[in-house]
């Protein structure tokens, strides 16, 4: 760690796992560069302060009820959070800026800036009123973030798209999404989508800069110049930092550490790891199809089934006893796994994933080819990047069927097709690794970000 530079940065993550991990990786990077860190967070999905003893944590009221947090509509949940957190956030930040050290009475360290998740839209007016520079941390790829503002317009046309016979055609306004992906992406009722996206766009354009923690020139080469032209604020594509700053300490779930000893007993590149992230859900019949496909492949597998993720059941009760006995012969089912440790294990041969960007980037960083089964939102685009653009995985084309899953596993692990995928993945992994090394594109972008923050 660099010597403390006398400056403090305030971070404000959106309270979902896929946004908390990148924010804490950002915090660890800044702390390693000499900045002190204060994290303002909601009571809902509060991070574990004990896992980060070098950071200061301040909790604010979020006003969410039990009914609110059970909603399946994330756009509505984020809209509620923005409505109900503004007053408590303003009070907290105002007090922080004006506070003195309780022991010495001296002024605390200079606060350089606020870094908040792009999903917080009220922060612009608060920071401006307090004359505090503000950076937006973005957990999407540059390509998705640029294109997703077209979703309200595309949503109005989705009925026409669903009747289109050319469902495999690429959506011109949103490549490399295909029309059938867009229909699925927009099928959920999201009446708050357009106003929420408009607020995100306005908040981002009025910021002092955008940090893309999941992107680097090697992954977003075509989109970065266009984004700089469109947003007209400094953009920092600092790339994945997973190898240097693991996300496990910021997990909201208890990780089953028995995964690693189990993997130690398996052969190299033989295990299929299966996880659908912190938000996705499935039906009982879908879980059975996945379990059967894994079992029928004949390969050992590690299956993560989050508590409450199977509709109508608490955990894996939907799997019949006879099938469970067969599953246990080759597989292991856990409620949550230390994903980065799992993916870097020598036994992992493939990753059946929902294609959340954290998972995609972690898989690339460890050189693990993927089988794509996206569930919602940005995952549809990342699945196409994996299967159609980078060509480092196979796409199930939204078919949760045992025969399709078994076939995809065999294609990925055996034969010339799987070998070609692994070769391309190795090349992509190497490119991304070079980007974060000294003089790489992400390394240079991070150095520019540190200079930018230090200039405030």
TrEMBL record:
CDD domains: GT1_Gtf-like. InterPro entries: UDP_glucos_trans. GO terms for molecular function: quercetin 3-O-glucosyltransferase activity; quercetin 7-O-glucosyltransferase activity. Keywords: Glycosyltransferase, Transferase. Transmembrane segments: none annotated. The keyword Chaperone does not apply. Pfam families: UDPGT. The keyword Transferase applies. Belongs to the UDP-glycosyltransferase family. PANTHER family: GLUCOSYL/GLUCURONOSYL TRANSFERASES, UDP-GLYCOSYLTRANSFERASE 76C3-RELATED. This is Glycosyltransferase. The lineage of its organism: Eukaryota, Viridiplantae, Streptophyta, Embryophyta, Tracheophyta.
């Amino acid at each position: 760690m660099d010597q403390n530079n006398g400056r403090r940065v305030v971070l404000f993550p959106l309270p979902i796992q896929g946004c908390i991990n990148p924010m804490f990786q950002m915090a660890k990077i800044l702390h390693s560069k000499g900045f002190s860190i204060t994290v303002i967070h909601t009571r809902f999905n509060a991070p574990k302060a004990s896992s980060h003893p070098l950071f200061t944590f301040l909790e604010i009221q979020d006003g969410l009820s039990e009914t609110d947090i059970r909603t399946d509509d994330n756009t509505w949940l984020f809209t509620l959070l923005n409505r109900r957190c503004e007053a408590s956030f303003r009070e907290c930040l105002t007090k922080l800026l004006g506070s003195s050290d309780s022991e010495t009475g001296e002024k605390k360290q200079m606060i350089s800036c606020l870094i908040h998740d792009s999903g917080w839209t009220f922060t612009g007016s608060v920071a401006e009123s307090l004359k505090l520079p503000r950076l937006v941390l973005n957990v999407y790829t540059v390509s998705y973030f640029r294109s997703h503002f077209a979703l309200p317009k595309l949503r109005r046309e989705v009925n026409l798209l669903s009747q289109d016979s050319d469902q495999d055609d690429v959506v011109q306004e949103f490549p490399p999404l295909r029309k059938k992906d867009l229909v699925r992406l927009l099928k959920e009722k999201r009446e708050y989508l357009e106003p929420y996206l408009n607020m995100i766009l306005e908040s981002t354009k009025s910021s002092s800069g955008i940090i893309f923690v999941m992107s680097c020139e090697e992954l977003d080469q075509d989109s970065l110049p266009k984004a700089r032209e469109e947003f007209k604020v400094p953009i920092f594509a600092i790339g994945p930092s997973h190898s240097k700053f693991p996300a496990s300490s910021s997990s909201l779930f208890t990780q089953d550490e028995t995964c690693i000893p189990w993997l130690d007993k398996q052969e190299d590149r033989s295990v299929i790891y299966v996880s659908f992230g912190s938000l996705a859900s499935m039906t009982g019949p879908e879980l059975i199809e996945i379990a059967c496909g894994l079992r029928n492949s004949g390969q050992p597998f590690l299956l993560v089934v989050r508590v409450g993720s199977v509709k109508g059941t608490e955990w894996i009760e939907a799997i019949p006893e006879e099938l469970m006995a067969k599953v246990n012969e080759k597989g292991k089912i856990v409620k949550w796994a230390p994903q980065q440790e799992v993916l870097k294990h020598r036994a992992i041969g493939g990753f059946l994933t929902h294609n959340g960007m954290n998972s995609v980037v972690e898989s690339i960083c460890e050189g693990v080819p993927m089988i794509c089964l996206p569930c919602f939102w940005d995952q549809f685009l990342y699945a196409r990047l994996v299967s159609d653009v980078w060509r480092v995985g196979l796409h199930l084309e939204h078919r949760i069927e045992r025969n399709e899953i078994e076939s995809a596993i065999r294609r990925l692990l055996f034969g010339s097709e799987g070998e070609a995928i692994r070769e391309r993945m190795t090349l992509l992994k190497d490119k991304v690794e070079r980007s974060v090394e000294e003089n790489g594109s992400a390394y240079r972008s991070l150095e520019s970000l540190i200079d930018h923050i230090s200039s405030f």
